[in-house]
Amino acid sequence: MTRFGYKASAEQFAPRELLDFSVLAEQVGLDSVAVSDHFQPWRHKTGHAPNSLVWLGALAQATERVQMLTSVLTPTMRYHPSIVAQSFGTLGCLAPGRVILGVGTGEAMNETPATAAEWPGAKERRLRMAEAIELIRELWRGDRVTFEGDYYKTDRATIYDKPEQQVPIYVAASGPLAAKLVGRVGDGFITTSGKKPELYAELLENVQAGADAAGRDATAIERTIEIKVSYDRDADYALKACEWWAALALTPDEKSGIEDPIEMERLADAHADRAHTRFIVTADPQEAAEKIWWYVDQGFQHLVFHGPGGDQKRFLEQFSADVLPLLRARAG
After folding, report:
1. Contact 82/154 with Cβ under 8 angstroms?
2. Which of 2, 119, 139, 172 could form a disulfide with 72 if both were Cys (CB 3.0 to 4.6 A apart)?
3. Is 299 left (phi over 0), alpha (psi -120 to 50) or beta?
4. Is position 38 annotated as part of the catalytic site?
5. CB neighbours of 229 closer than 8 A, spacing ≥ 6?
6. What residues are paired with 281 via a beta bridge?
7. Interstrand relation of 67-70 and 32-35 (parallel, antiparallel or unpaired)
């Protein structure tokens, strides 16, 4: 089954405003709301960074139907895995069957300023995440958990409020080794659109390989993708709306290790002419639907739409009226 969701961009909007947009997303017929979890935003002057754990509690009460997920939270540095387990246990009690914990290895701009800790290399970040997932699940399964890992420890720890239905853990990956980890331990897979087409085949192959190595059924791992789409009936508006998100078009080398929103903003503005390259930019509903459906053809099942503009009400209303019905029709 193909599902369609809304990306609540906590880097761009204040908490109440973001909540109003997400309630509207449910009203216009979307199936899920995915929220980013940033300690610091991409932009110092116009950015925001509401705490996702607090915000999701408000979303649980403000909505009735949509599934809620983090896309993504890092459970390894500024959050200890035991606190993540407690928080998502509580959310699962507040909104039974509607909560997904989406995790990733993180970014320096979120973890380093909050902790003053040295930013680990890619291998250590993956190992930390795998261990964090193991500990979170142990805490959800057991009582008085004493855990002795390489990075995390607990001493007779108990999560006292656990949902009857365990919260799924989706794992983000943008590279082959992280994708294999998804296959080994993830209930779902999260990635983002707008990169080289061949990357998606490689990632999905590695999810399959990781699942095979662990003796798991890869078809049970839901494949989720954030699709960056700037759809508007005004083509010029759709193009200009991308500029706030120019940081997404920076190369990994350009933004690697940057921990200061002021510096990230400076780099993004210097390359604003690239901003649109990560987005599907169009005023044509059929073109939008065709380009979005390419990801379904690759094997993705849960599509979360990230509209870049400052007027999210405009995006949600136009997208749900013009593009979403075409996607629903194709999905059957």
Report:
1. yes
2. 172
3. left
4. yes
5. 279, 280, 288, 291, 292, 305, 306, 307, 319, 323
6. 230
7. parallel
Residue 255 has pLDDT above 90, yes or no: no
Q: In this structure, are residues 229 and 261 in contact, taking their beta carbons and an 8 Å threshold?
A: no
Q: Which of 11, 26, 38, 306 is catalytic?
A: 38
Say if CB 43 and CB 265 are below 8 A apart: yes
| pLDDT at 257 exceeding the cut of 80 | no
Does 107 participate in catalysis according to the annotation? yes
- 31 pLDDT band, cuts 50/70/90, is very high
CATH superfamily, domain 3-229+284-331, is: Luciferase-like domain (3.20.20.30)
Mean pLDDT calculated for residue range 136-140 = 98
φ/ψ region of 48 (left if φ > 0, alpha if ψ in -120 to 50, else beta) reads beta
Active-site annotation holder among 11, 26, 80, 107 = 107
pLDDT, tens digit, 9 for 90 and up, residues 294-323: 999 999 999 999 999 999 999 999 999 999
Cα separation, 239 vs 231, in Å, equals 9
Q: Is the distance from CB of 210 to CB of 220 less than 8 angstroms?
A: no
> Span 217-228, mean pLDDT?
98
Would you state the pLDDT for residue 164? 92
User: Domain limits of the chain?
Assistant: 3-229+284-331
Can you give the pLDDT at residue 258? 86
